[in-house]
Amino acid sequence: MPGVVETTHTFATNEVITSTLMNNIIDETLFTADALANTTLALTAGKMKVGTITSNEMGAGAVTTNAIASGAVTTSGLASSSSAITGVTYAKMQYAANMKALGNTSGSLGVVSEVSILDEDNMVSDSATSLATQQSIKAYTDTKFAAVITRGTAVVTTSGTTVDFTSIPSTVKRITVMLSGVSTNGTSPVILQLGDSGGFVSTNYLGSAGEVRSTPDVDLFTTGFGLLQSPAAADLFYGIATIVNISGNVWVYSFTGGSSTVANNYIGGGSKTLSATLDRIRLTTIGGNTFDAGSVNIMYE
Q: At a CB cut-off of 8 Å and minimum separation 6, what does 127 contact?
């Protein structure tokens, strides 16, 4: 009965054992199928080799990283993914910490590592390598777009000698003052004054304003930005004054306007340097006349 090996020579009775015969037996001995304990081994022409091993036949820890030579497993040896559960699956990849993604932010070819995912509605960290969540991007852009232009609340100019707009944000770089049908009970020039935490400033303005008419009339203004040089008490005037920050606390302005009661146009321009951050603006007159018609509002950005 055959055993686990087969030899190519059978000794006869009283046959002399020689070294040649013994060497031949050893060299030519073949394994039989009885030598296989499981399907992890295979026979090829009587020679034993490692067979195809499936994942089900390999126990946990059966093959360690130390048992696999460097470069022994190549990409061609990995199954291609055809679904979320084939090939190299998520479960077989390295675990990552919370709010981390795997990537390379080195600026060149490099080892994959954990990259932070930040959920900051104000983008305060200003990171050049971290990722942002969809929610934080939406919150940030919504806030920025909403704050591009802010319109104040219109104030009627039917009484009093001043109209003040306060609590203007320190980040504002451009202010638009809108006048609609504004009138006073006198002929004093109408001006705009800027202010900061120390109050409204009424000195050292640079600029001029005037009326475009048959006989032009232009004056210098030092106590504020000139809007109307010499209005009549019954005049209703309209216009836009734009005040823009150049740098630091330096502001420049321009004004254009017209009237519905007299064929005049109004122009002006100038500059003012404050000692602190602008946070307020005032519409008033030089002579203390009282407003008696119209409304005024501001927009800032």
A: 116, 118
